[in-house]
Amino acid sequence: MKNYTILFLVFILNLSCSDNNTFSEEIENEEELSPEEPEEEGTVYLTQITSNITSSTDDAFDFTDFSNSFSVNENGLLQLWEVDYIKKETSIEIQIESGNIVKLATVELDKENGSSTTEETIVSYNNDGLITKIESFYDGDKVQEYSIVHNSSEIDFIDLIDDRDRKITLDSNNNLISFYQESIDFTIVFEYSKGNLTKKTLNDTNILTYQYDDKTNPFNSEVFLNLSTLTNYLNVIGGWEFLFYDENNIYSNSNNIVQFMVENNDFGGLQNHTFIYQYNDEGFPVEKSNERNSVTVDYIYNVN
After folding, report:
1. Distance CA 254, CA 197 (A)
2. Nearest partner of 86 among 129, 56, 45, judged by Cα
3. Which residue in 292, 288, 217, 276 sits closest to 248, CA to CA?
4. Total domains, the chain
5. pTM here?
6. Domain residues for 259?
7. Can you give the CATH number for the domain in which 31 is found?
8. Residue 268: which residues within 8 A CB-CB, separation 6 or more?
9. Percent of the chain beyond pLDDT 70?
10. What is the DSSP secondary-structure string of 87-153?
């Protein structure tokens, strides 16, 4: 069932699907500003990532190695996200109510044969703003339904379709610190420092580590609403593979990843990555180079 976990996570999950597209036509009516020379006061937010990546075999780290476009509504909140994975293109429309994401409508277009798939994810909340249910529909058919039960620092994900229950634990800052999947006896432990995810350990032996700069992470912004929490929950539903391989905490990290190290991984499929950034005067990254695959991306900002 994990194969149907929301396609909006394609940015992390299916990096083999790619091609280069700046999406400039999607935001041609917006005045693009770099924070290097802000022309007006307001909230600086990321509108585009443009990438020189040309092949799906370029060993991309995550969705930020590809071209992205982010569009906001009149309230300055994310409403449309597009990612160009070279061979495929993903478009995610985001529906918002009371400051929370309640629906993700995803279309994935195969640019080689013109076929497309659709997926909708419906998110329900209680009066305290906590997520209590997630339902996913693939081409109109319901493929996932999870009831989410909050019990202080522990959260149970109860599978209402299959027997794939999960459990997570949060720390006092609401960071995900442990994941347990009973059916296969897999446990992942997460460690943090200075607001950043620094280590993931799977079953005590498989270890991934992160290092960071001291500059502003443009994804840690009110523009992206509760996308960090929702992404975590969708990866929990996906299972240990998604959390271990794909959850880089990008919407919550205070700073930008400069090094990703695979200390040990019995399952393969991951490589070390080192990133070099250029910044503007306000401390926002304006260019990132991935030393492993020679991919360079530019960050383009606006002010609302």
Report:
1. 9
2. 56
3. 217
4. 1
5. 0.84
6. 2-303
7. 2.40.160
8. none
9. 86
10. SEEEEEEEEEETTEEEEEEEEEEETTT--EEEEEEEEEE-TTS-EEEEEEEETTEEEEEEEEEEETT
